[in-house]
Amino acid sequence: MIRRKEQFNEAKELSISHEIRVRFNETDPLGIVWHGYYITYFEDGREAFGRHHGLSYLDIFDSGFTTPIVKSTCEHKLSLRYGDVGRIETTIVDTPAAKMIYRYVIYDANNEIACTGETVQVFLDKNGDLMLTNPPFYEEWKRKVGLTK
User: Fold this and answer.
1) Would you say 50 and 91 are in contact if contact means Cβ atoms under 8 Å apart?
2) Is 71 helix (H, G, I), strand (E, B) or coil?
3) Exposed e or buried b for every residue in 104-128, given b needs 16+ CB within 10 A?
4) Residue 1: its pLDDT value, please?
C-alpha cells in the first residue's frame, strides 16, 4: 500500500477544544447521530477556532474575502448518541499554499475518538476570483501567531 507523504504539518500550538452536545434533531430513529452532522460539528470547531485565534468568518469577510470549502473528509470510528457530550479538537495545518486546512478529532464522553476529518478552504476575493497567493490579512495573521516570520 502506498501512503501519501505528509505535505504540511499541523500547527499543534494553534488548536482549540470545544464541547458539543448532541441534540435530538441530529439523530436518526435509533438515537445515533446522522453521519452528515459530523460536518456541522467540524464547522462548530472552525468557528470556535476562529473566535479564539482571531480568524473568524467575519474577520475574513471584513477583509474582503470568503473561504468556501473545496474538500472535506470524515472518518467515523464510534457513534455519538442523543444527549452525549463530546469534544471537538480543531487544529490548523501550516501550509504555504493559498488555502486553509483544518483537521478535526471528535471525542466521546469517554475520551475515545468518535470521528476524524479535514476540510480545505480556498480564498475568493470580493469578485469571487480565486486567490493564487495568500491574501495580505492572512499573511499578517500567520505572522502574528508565529507561523511565518
Assistant:
1) no
2) strand
3) bbbbbeeeeebbbbbbbbbbbeeee
4) 52
Cβ 72 vs Cβ 42: under 8 Å: yes
> Distance (Å, rounded) from C-alpha 104 to C-alpha 24?
23
Q: Which pLDDT value is given to residue 9?
A: 72
Q: Is the dihedral of CA 135, 137, 140, 141 positive or negative?
A: negative
Are the beta carbons of 46 and 90 closer than 8 angstroms? yes
Rounded Cα gap, residues 147 and 136, in angstroms? 14
Cell of 23: 441534540
What single-letter amino acid sits at 76?
Answer: H
Cell 499573511 belongs to which residue? 139
> Cell numbers of 124, please?
475568493
The three three-digit cell numbers of residue 117, written as one number: 476529518
CA–CA separation, 79 vs 115, rounded Å?
Answer: 8
User: pTM (2 decimals)?
Assistant: 0.90
In terms of residues, how long is the chain? 149
Mean pLDDT of 72-82: 96
Residue of 71, 109, 88, 93 lying closest to 142 (CA atoms): 93
Strand partners, 20: 86
- Provide the 8-state DSSP code for 97: S
